[in-house]
Design brief:
Elements: E1 5-9, H1 20-29, E2 34-37, H2 42-45, H3 55-67, E3 70-74, H4 82-87, E4 94-95, E5 98-99, H5 113-130, E6 136-140, H6 153-167, H7 170-177, H8 201-227, E7 235-237, E8 239-240, E9 243-246, E10 255-259, H9 266-269, E11 277-279, H10 291-304, E12 308-312, H11 327-337, E13 340-345, H12 371-390, E14 399-403, H13 405-413, H14 422-435, E15 441-444, E16 455-458, H15 466-477, E17 481-485, H16 507-510, E18 512-518, E19 524-525, E20 528-529, E21 531-539, E22 543-547, E23 557-564, E24 567-572, E25 574-575, H17 578-591, E26 603-610, E27 613-620, E28 626-629, E29 634-637, E30 643-645, E31 649-652, E32 657-662
Parallel strand pairs: 1-2, 1-13, 2-3, 3-6, 6-7, 8-11, 11-12, 12-13, 14-15, 14-16, 16-17, 17-24
Antiparallel strand pairs: 4-5, 9-10, 18-21, 19-20, 21-25, 22-23, 23-24, 26-27, 27-32, 28-31, 29-30, 29-32
């Protein structure tokens, strides 16, 4: 793709009347060039068993062709048609609490043979029907795929088969997970129990990992089917999403993209696609920080170390997402600054009935031009004019934040506090780096190549292999900087806690150890209360950077730094206030010869290269006007053409965007 992708999900089958031609005209006026269709309405494409109706698909494709627009076709397998459930009720996923009832989406058993038969048939028919159309540039397989908490018989039978192949004998299985505990050991594979009652963190987490692998296999299976029909110039993508942070009322529509997705491994499933895609939703109005956009982009980009598509993000959304003037434009450039090749809104129009009727699209329910649409027109105009200069942004960050689904599972079994989960710790670290303008990659532990980085941060890397431990130690000894937080290097990949001093295998690297941890009631560090969890560190060779302030725990360390070989290793043993954590991150970055920009949030600086040209996005997340000094010897601002010299003041209005090209 040579141009920036700009568009929206489009559902003419949801419209109160036929207006495809008008919608295409409005999209073209807004500078849009891409539609995403078909992923949500299997029951429209196949109204009866074996009878297919592609009439609305054909109308959209022809209208798009006539309007010179591109189309991404989605396979419609994440929402079942009612006739299929009537035919085979057990196609609905069986969760811990019982079988799901029909109605909502993403409630099918993805390994059920009847589901697979019908899913394959609709995918093949749709792909065969659309792949040859010149407007179709690619396919999206399924939609925000996960394992859906599958405890059905097919999933559990496959799990036992997997365990037999992996461990060979029941004795090996029992040893790996310490199943003698509470008499859980089995001595015949026929005695393997239903996983719904599992009380072993290791075995339970193993099942979660297996379910994630089933979800990844499911996507790869779909990709294989589509690949039989697609042209060589067409891509396959998927809209990977994230853990969802809820606030206020506990309803699915109240929250935003937050952290590592627990129900599918992005690293494992990324092999299904040729072009990474993602869905990123985030706070807006006074809560807009840009952190969720950056987190999502930094994670998705690193799966293939390449550009990606934002396949869904909000235009208006709910009442707390309705953007202030200028914010929609800021959102768009924030995605590009992390390496996106473009973005599509969910969705083009507001739906007039159904579960998401109050989720506003780019157009409101009157389907006419509005404030959000007019701001989208500004984005489209700028992308037509400047897109060739800013597309295909490449980034070479020297800091990695390591994430791990195994450690996420572990901390669901063994949370450090009822109010603190794995993703809270990941975001505590990531957001601190983000606000310091220290750009980083978010890298799954299975994809980590330490030699790419100068500094590696491991938030709560609880579950770790011996291979990972040795690689990180070597990274430090060869000159790298490692910073780890509490609950790192505790257990192996089966969640069996290592029977030695903690942090496992790295006490020499960190120059400290600990044997106890505590509730940090009344503990302070540098006068600030610490929260949730405190490991009582004992520095050996390490330098004490901060000590607990407490009558009984005051002899123990909270933060340490150790010189190890040519590098250094920092350990943060408790949950500090963010400003305190930032201080130690800056120290570690300095050790790694990484210079943090002078600017701090709400001014965010994100950099990269496009066709060899060094670009810097200046993203201003505030309604207050301010100025910043140009940090570059000489730079041209893209939109105005103005040349700035080093130290010259650059004005930033509310929710502003500047793009500087070094000269």
């Amino acid at each position: 793709m040579c141009d920036l992708v700009f568009g929206a999900a489009y559902y003419p089958e949801y419209m109160p009347y036929d207006r495809i031609k008008k919608d295409i005209e409005m999209m073209k006026k807004a500078g849009m060039n891409t539609l995403r269709i078909a992923e949500s309405t299997w029951s429209s494409l196949e109204p009866e068993d074996g009878r297919f109706d592609f009439s609305y698909i054909d109308k959209v494709l022809e209208a798009a062709k006539e309007g010179g627009m591109s189309v991404i076709v989605g396979t419609p397998t994440y929402a079942l048609p009612p006739w299929l459930v009537r035919k085979e009720p057990e196609i609905m996923v069986e969760k811990k609490e019982g079988r799901a009832a029909y109605g909502s989406r993403q409630l099918m058993d993805i390994v059920h043979p009847v589901f697979r038969f019908h899913a394959e048939r609709v995918i093949r028919n749709l792909a065969e029907h659309t792949a040859g159309h010149e407007a179709v540039i690619g396919f999206q397989i399924d939609n925000e795929t996960k394992h859906y908490g599958n405890y059905g018989k097919y999933a559990q039978e496959l799990f036992v088969k997997y365990l037999r192949e992996r461990f060979g004998t029941t004795d090996a299985l029992n040893r790996a997970f310490y199943l003698n505990y509470w008499s859980n050991a089995i001595h015949s594979w026929d005695d393997f129990p239903d996983m719904r009652g599992c009380c072993s963190a290791g075995l339970g987490s193993c099942y979660e990992a297996f379910l994630r692998s089933l979800a990844a296999e499911y996507l790869k299976w779909q990709a294989g089917l589509v690949a039989e029909y697609k042209r060589k110039d067409q891509f396959i993508t998927h809209n990977f999403d994230f853990a969802w942070k809820k606030f206020g009322a506990e309803i699915a529509q109240d929250g935003y993209s937050y952290g590592v997705q627990p129900d599918i491994s992005h690293a494992e499933a990324s092999g299904a696609v040729s072009l990474m895609g993602t869905d990123i939703y985030h706070p807006t109005q006074d809560e807009l920080t840009g952190a969720e956009i950056a987190f999502g982009g930094d994670e998705i980009r690193c799966l293939k170390q390449n550009n990606y598509l934002v396949l869904e993000t909000q235009a208006q959304g709910f009442k707390n997402w309705t953007p202030y003037p200028g914010q929609l434009r800021l959102h768009a450039y924030s995605h590009l600054a992390s390496g996106a090749a473009g973005m599509l809104y969910w969705n083009w129009h507001s739906i007039h009935n159904g579960y998401e009727a109050c989720w506003m699209g780019l157009l409101s329910h009157d389907l006419e031009e509005n404030e959000a649409y007019r701001e989208a027109c500004q984005i489209g105009k700028e992308w037509r004019k400047f897109g060739g200069q800013i597309c295909h942004l490449k980034k070479e960050n020297r800091v990695a934040v390591v994430v791990d689904n195994g450690s996420l599972d572990a901390l669901r079994w063994y949370p450090p506090d009822k109010d603190l989960c794995y993703n809270d710790i990941v975001r505590w670290v990531y957001d601190s780096l983000y606000e310091l303008n220290i750009e980083c990659d978010i890298v799954d532990i299975s994809l980590l190549k330490p030699e790419r980085y100068r500094m590696i941060v491991t938030p709560a890397l609880y579950s770790v292999s011996e291979e990972n431990v040795r690689a990180l130690e070597q990274f430090v000894r060869q000159g790298g900087v490692l910073m780890s937080t509490f609950r790192s290097f505790v257990a192996d990949r089966n969640l069996s806690i290592y029977p030695d001093k903690k942090p496992h295998g790295l006490t020499g690297c960190f120059g400290m150890t600990y044997r106890q941890f505590t509730e940090p009631d009344r503990i302070t560090v540098e006068g600030e209360r610490v929260r949730f969890f405190a490991e009582l560190l004992q520095a050996k060779e390490a330098k004490t950077l901060a000590r607990y302030e407490h009558r009984y725990w005051g002899e123990y360390d909270a933060v340490t730094r150790n010189k190890c070989g040519e590098g250094s290793a920092y350990y943060v043993g408790t949950y500090l206030e963010k400003e305190q954590l930032k201080k130690y991150l800056l120290m570690a970055a300095a050790d790694a010869c990484i210079e943090a920009p002078a600017q701090r949030w709400p001014v965010i600086v994100k950099s990269g290269t496009a066709d060899g040209r060094k670009l810097h996005y200046i993203l201003h997340y505030s309604e207050e006007c301010r100025e910043m000094e140009c940090p570059y010897e000489k730079a041209a601002e893209l939109f105005s053409g103005k040349i700035y010299q080093k130290g010259e003041k650059i004005p930033l209005r509310d929710w502003d965007v500047k793009i500087l090209e070094e000269r």
